[in-house]
């Protein structure tokens, strides 16, 4: 263990030494970069999406959605659709992008989403870049990638928390939650909004709270927020057993986390070990700075998306925390982080067919737990792995602390 700790410290020291801090106001810098690269859509070349100047900058939400649509529309022989799965609290569309190599027969779904938390810009850029790499490989006739797009329907939601993302571009760069108005008199800015990654069901994994003035306020009930309800409603409209996998992309910390987050017990055999194996393979593909464990071993997460996907759909959901040092990241890291995510996505999706000998847990009944609450005693769970505490300190457990 001492050898492992020393090795990890050396790796982190090298990473810190090479770290280029982002500008103090990276929204201004990102807008300036965007203005300098206005022709990226006109010059977009099929087979070279990942080389586009789009990835020189962080982009506002409309630019993200336009680029996603442009890439998918340009790939021949790809069946794709842009759908609006719902509206945000402030009335903005939540776009989703579905695609596969052929529309029939009906396929199982691989679902990927990013940016539940508004300040995590590089979660979205990594996801969009991973799609660009995937589509480049489709055009290049990569046999592995073609088989994955033939086997599954894919769905990507690049920005779940659109309202919050807009707020981070307009002066509140570290905003995390959605834009639900708060009711607490004289509260801090932390009281504004609901943490979407605490707002999922079922009731067995949701933790009712009344304290709004916290970054992890879960809302009044599962799916109380239009963003989480939109995702839930869209997924519930499918046959639950048809959802074969799900990834939820965040930043920062360098983690690949598996269920559960709401309880110490791991999923029942053989699924607990199978999930750990899947998470381990995914993080190994992403690189040496990534670690894997169950979410609760980092800290409890009630009402989280990963537990929701596993409990309601039997899907081996993973939460991916992109590596980094802060919720802000320099634009020079857009492509490297995207490459890491793409490697992880390919490994994950390739493993889905046999993640537990072609079996999966029985999903919960459809439409369960909407609008209901349950209460859990609040407790802090000591991480079971000795390196966890060191890693939290290394990634910045402080004012800009890592919270899933």
TrEMBL record:
Its cofactor is Zn(2+). One of its GO terms (cellular component) is extracellular space. Residues 1-18 form the signal peptide. Residues 53-352 form the Peptidase M14 domain. The keyword Signal applies. InterPro entries: Peptidase_M14. It holds the Pfam family Peptidase_M14. Transmembrane segments: none annotated. GO terms for biological process: proteolysis. The active site is at residue 321. GO terms for molecular function: metallocarboxypeptidase activity; zinc ion binding. It comes from the Eukaryota. Residues 203-222 are annotated as: Disordered. Belongs to the peptidase M14 family. This is Peptidase M14 domain-containing protein.
